[in-house]
Amino acid sequence: MSLNNLIKNWTSFRSRRPYLDQYKNADYKWAMVIDLDACTGCNACTTACYAENNLPVVGKERYEKGHAMHWLRIERYWGEGESVPVDMVPDRGAQFLPMMCQQCEAAPCEVVCPVGATHHSADGLNTQVYNRCVGSRYCSANCPYKVRYFNWWQYADTAWPNPLELQLNPDVSVRSKGVMEKCTFCVQRLRESMDHAKTDGRLVRDGEVTTACAQACPTSAITFGNLANPQSQVAKKWKNQQIALEKDEQKKDENLRGYRIFEEFRTYPSVVYLERVRDLEA
Amino acid sequence: MSHMIKHDVPDDNEIHIEKKFVPKDLDIDKDVSWAQINKDVLRSLDRPRPIFWVIFFAAMALFSFGVYCEKYQYDNGLGVADLNNPQVWGLYIATFIFWIGMGHSGTLLSALLHIIHADWRKPIYRYAEAMTTFSLLTAALFVLIHLGRVWQFYYVVAYPNERWVWPNFSSPLVWDATAIGTYLTSSLLFLYTGMVPDLAICRDNATGARKKLYTFMSLGWQGTDRQWATFRVTYMTLACFLMPLAVSVHSIVSTDFAVSQNPGWHITSFPPYFVAGALYSGCSVIITLFILLRYVFRFEAYMTMPILNKLIKMTFAIAMVWNYLNLIEYSTVWYGANEIAKQQLLDKMTGTYAPVFWGMVFCSTVMPFTLLIKFVRTHLPTLMVVSIILNFGMWLERIQIITPTFGHSQYPWTWTSGWWPSWVQFGIVAGSFGWFTMLFMLYCKIFPTISMYEVKEMVHDQSKMLKAKGVA
To answer: Which of the 8 DSSP states describes residue A70?
Structure first.
């Protein structure tokens, strides 16, 4: 029964790494690589994300209050440090960092949700069940990346005035006020292609499915794929950068560009960033 | 034989020289008769000073405003509170902790002092326990108010359902809900159990609807030996049960923060720090209410200055413990290796929220030292102001735990400064004070706020003691 199961797995509640421990031999582990060198900060990915996932455009006033709902945001940093002296910044422009849910293996948000509305799926996604969410916002409080967005208002009432509601993606629910949401790695696309593949009795091929942001990126800065498939582009890039999902197994050359944000918190994020290469002259 | 006795007994003059005894301040006037106690306490159920009604209706107005704010928030979404993405909790959780903290002292001190036979608790424990109950109820309101979807709050409870969906037992919020529920139930039980003999007195003196209420609630108390014996055992058992429970509750509330990994929250000393803070704010509220009740219900004969003095001493001691733990917290961060936490601490002290931090330092660290001045301890209006300042400081403390951490957490892109809660948040916080005051005053009007039977015991014990020492 459920209760026995609960008691048996009590200790595992304390340090959950579902994919690493529980689903070790699963067929899928969705992951991403973002090449910051290729990123131009054009925001096409953000726009694609808005369109794909029914994100409401909140307007200037609410944006300034911090109520924006951008699951994927382009962060702009004016560099300072060794590689980019301060006075060179205006000429050379800003550094951009697309930030979305890192789909952590040991996600800090999952542990603290009182109702289990955010939990881990067998294919390594950090999922959010809107119907279960009561809106305690503890997950957002505990997320070091602060990539969780709360529905402060009933956006559906204002964001898509007639006939704009016709543009909504029918595969994605429109969230009501009071629930938490975040990047899902376009789970609706993943599930669809996994269903197709299952019908055909095979696994999803590399490149068969991709997220809206990766699809929209004009410079192909974002690579998305199945890390469990060693032939996939993502797996190859992870391997080239000597990054392993399990942080302790990772023996990384310091000169490589790949890194994961806040690895030291042992969240085991699924998104690898490739550092931007800059030289000091012009 | 008679000759010998006569020789041994010295005459009156010699008694005073030989057994020179300087009595300490008695906790209560030794001459007060039992009938007088009944009369005085029952009078409080009858007709208080007019100020009672002034406060009561002011509290009701505040509460109504709070209800309006909550309605407005319920209809429009939490956006009206001006919470935003990093600042997700704001005043709601800060005030929640404030009320939970206040809810600690009553029952904990009452149980502790009962176990160690500190008699001076007897005239003041009843209202302190009532305060506990009502502040827990207020705190529970905040848990609901801050939820995005209040109407689904029961998902947090482990109730049997057809889908076999459990709450997430690794979440501190679930521990919270469980701990607070347990504590509220046992505190109510403790309050009620201690009240039964008094309710019987009320029953014997009441008429009409009140008679019915007291008859029902006094559970057929007749004051027989057997009833008293059972009562003593039950009461002591409950006290022993409540002691560790009360300590555990605020420890668990502190895990909301200590379990998370944010800088400024992820600190091992949080559980004792929260418990000390809870006792501190609770004690200062007990002082505030002491002064108020003493005036409003003319309880000068029972809520005496020596008792107040002991209460103040205890508050001061707890304040020092709290300060010590606060210092430990900051120094472990300061000397620790966690750069992010250190930055956050510096930001807390010098950044946008520095006024909150230094306000807390002034109200809760500096102000308790005024309790060392005799004038402050004996001049009731001054003392009341001081006790309110201490409590305000503890409210600021809860804010400075929550807000600066959200404003300056690990991820620099989300650093916010100058965040300010909207009128809705302030309105709901004010409304919670109205709600608490209203409930507490209703309680004072319906139930005896001084434990009559225990004050009688106290008078009895005192005169026995004095006789033994040969003074009376």
So the answer is: -
| Burial (0-12, 13-18, 19+ Cβ within 10 Å), B316 | middle
Q: Best interface-test mutation with A: which of B83, B146, B170, B416 has the largest number of A CBs within 10 A?
A: B170
- Whether residue B169 and residue A13 make contact (CB cut-off 8 A), yes or no, is yes
Rounded Cα–Cα distance for residues B160 and A253 (Å): 52
Q: Do A146 and B86 touch (CB under 8 A)?
A: yes
Cα–Cα distance measured from residue B265 to residue B329, given in angstroms and rounded to the nearest whole number: 10
The rounded distance, in Å, linking the Cα atoms of A111 and A114 is 8
Per residue in A56-110, pLDDT tens? 999 899 888 889 999 999 998 875 554 555 555 545 567 889 999 999 988 889 8
Cα(A186)–Cα(A168) distance, rounded to whole angstroms? 14
Helices B90-115/B225-258 angle, 10° precision: 140
Whether A112 and B173 lie within 8 Å, measured CB to CB:
yes
Q: How far apart are CA B274 and CA B259, in angstroms?
A: 14
Q: Measure the CA–CA gap between A31 and B67, rounded to whole angstroms.
A: 47
Q: Which residues pair with A31 in a beta bridge?
A: A225
Enumerate residues 6+ apart whose C-beta is below 8 A from B24: B306
B164: number of Cβ within 10 Å: 9
Partner residue opposite B155 with nearest CB, options A115, A149, A180: A115
The partner residues of A33 in beta bridges, in order of sequence, read A223, A272
pTM of the complete model: 0.88
What does the pLDDT look like over B210-253, one tens digit per residue?
Answer: 889 999 998 989 889 999 999 999 999 998 898 888 888 889 99
The pair of three-digit structure tokens given for residue B398, joined into one six-digit string: 């809860």
Residues of A with Cβ-Cβ distance to B180 under 8 angstroms = none
Three-class SS state of A88: helix
3-class secondary-structure state, position A99: strand
| Residues B463 and B472 sit within 8 Å (Cβ to Cβ) | yes
Q: How are beta strands A73-77 and A118-120 bridged, if at all?
A: unpaired
The tokens 């993943």 sit on which residue?
A190
CA distance B403 to B86: 9
Q: Which residues pair with A35 in a beta bridge?
A: A274
Q: Distance between CA atoms of B240 and A6, rounded to whole angstroms?
A: 31
B259–A114 C-beta distance less than 8 A: no
Distance, CA of A168 to CA of B322 (rounded, Å): 54
Model-level ipTM above the cut of 0.90: no
